[in-house]
Amino acid sequence: EVPLVQSGGGLVQAGGSLRLSCAASRIPFDDYAIGWFRQAPGKEREGIAGVNNGDGRTYYTDSVKGRFTISSDNAKKTVYLQMNSLKPEDTAVYYCATALPPAMHAIVTGDLPVDALDTWGQGTLVTVSS
Description:
It is a single chain. The chain has one helix spanning 101-108, and strands spanning 4-8, 10-13, 18-24, 33-39, 46-52, 58-60, 68-73, 78-83, 92-99, 124-129. The chain is mainly beta. It has a 6-stranded mixed β-sheet. A 4-stranded antiparallel β-sheet has the order 1-3-8-7, with no helix packed on it. Helix content is 6%, strand content 45%. 35% of the residues are buried.
């Protein structure tokens, strides 16, 4: 059983919306955080949002703040990323990952490297056309 399974994504016009899902298994969900990352062509993978599943605390990087919303459904052990007002520069492969809350916050915000994470979803492509 794969720890993180993603769904959602696809093609949308600029200004549109998409929702990504990340379903977790085999982890103590409430003790962990889930983060969303993305990797655009030719660029490094970057963190964009995270949520502490236990207390619901959320955080975002400036590139998505005010447009994206991360949320956690603890009963379903699933984290969502609602993406609104999408821009062509949001085009990327999106990944979810899990870690303990302090580590996830540090990684999403860039204080620790992304390759410190070792549990990832399979990735899903989001393409925003202009």
